[in-house]
Amino acid sequence: MKYFLTGATGFLGGKLAQILRNEGHEVVALVRTPSKATALKNLGVTIAQGDVTDKESMRAPMQGCDGVFHVAGWYKLGKRNHAEGWNINVQGTRNVLELMQELGIPKGVYTSTLAINSDTHGAVPDESFHFKGQHISEYDRTKAAAHDVANEFIAKGLPLVVLMPGLIYGPDGTSLSDDALRLFLKKQLPMIPTQSAYCWAHVDDVARAHLLGMEKATPGSTYIVAGPVHTLTDAMSMASDITGIRKPLFVPPVLLKITAFFSALVENMIPLPEMYSSEALRVQAGVTYLGNNAKARRELGYQPRSLREGLAETLAYEQAKMKKS
User: Fold this and answer.
1) Per-residue pLDDT for 275 more than 90?
2) Cβ within 8 Å of residue 302, ≥6 positions away
3) Containing domain of residue 42, as a range?
4) CA-CA distance, 261 to 278, in Å (whole number)?
5) Considering the domain boundaries, does residue 88 fall inside one?
6) Residues 6 or more apart from 193 whose CB is under 8 A from it?
7) DSSP state of 32
8) Please, is 115 exposed, middle or buried when counting C-beta atoms within 10 Å of its C-beta (0-12, 13-18, 19+)?
9) Is residue 193 part of a domain?
10) CA dihedral angle for residue 66, residue 301, residue 234, residue 321, rounded to 10 degrees
11) Is the distance from CB of 177 to CB of 315 less than 8 angstroms?
12) pLDDT per residue over 110-148, tens digit each?
């Protein structure tokens, strides 16, 4: 099969490209800067220069493909200018789906996120849940709007499957949780909040779920492809058990909320590191981004690994990498 893929230079997209090539599929990857796509070229991926915000740049490379994986997304925290988030997550999704419809592509898989439901306050909802409150971050807000765009096209008959991952981690991960793990290994992570909980899925498992979605899912369906539920303190306790490194101090989330308040005052004058921006602190302060993956397990055969297994592999990789540097 020949697949068109956005976001291939990213963490999840890169792993998906690798899996697709290993399965013998032809992959056409949309890349803004081809010089940064050496790893993809080495996999035998066809590189097409373009951008999801430029609809016409995708027309020729998407033509004749058997399916589309739209993985590309903007996920920055603490940015003052939110226009890029809207342009990539919302308008970019509209561009991809419009072209898919115009070109008559047989099937597509769109990568949404559990973050569209914001803080679930400990509840573990399924795919039928629809959040109607105010989102914590601009990422949550724009991905929720993009999810609505996907549903809009599904209602028009577009053969699209929507997947909702939770927290994605793994070797060379790019999220705040991956940064926290690397700081932990360096013994530079002083504290973490209690109560914060996520659905932890290894990147390999989420990438594999995308292929399952393309091959098995009924067009028009939505699946939560998140991992097992664990608090951040659970994860760090496991990391400590695995490595023997002392775990960081566990603090009540109110401390991060207070820090977020003062960060909001300071960041208007002085740029702060992403991890310490008011927005990043808010999404860590005792929040729960949770979802039930039972439907994906039952209908797609999705089988995410345990957090302990995934952490052991990830931490071993990151430790070996640190020794080489």
Assistant:
1) no
2) 205, 208, 209, 212, 223, 225, 293, 296
3) 2-173+199-227+290-304
4) 7
5) yes
6) 232, 250, 251, 252, 253, 255, 256, 284, 285, 286
7) S
8) buried
9) no
10) -50
11) no
12) 999 999 999 999 999 999 999 988 898 889 999 999 999
Nearest to 236 by CA among 189, 287, 279, 204: 189
Residues 6+ apart with CB under 8 A from 114: 164, 165, 166, 199, 224, 226, 289, 290, 291
What is the CATH number for 63?
Answer: 3.40.50.720
One-letter amino acid of 140: D
Is 210 among the domain residues? yes
- What pTM was computed for the model? 0.93
pLDDT band of 21, cuts 50, 70, 90: very high
- 283 contacts 166 by C-beta, under 8 angstroms: no
Read off the tokens for 216: 């098995």
Asked, for residue 163, whether it belongs to a domain, the answer is yes
Using CA atoms, how far residue 102 sits from 27, 62, 175, in Å, is 20, 11, 34
* Identity of the residue numbered 286: G
Domain count, the chain: 1
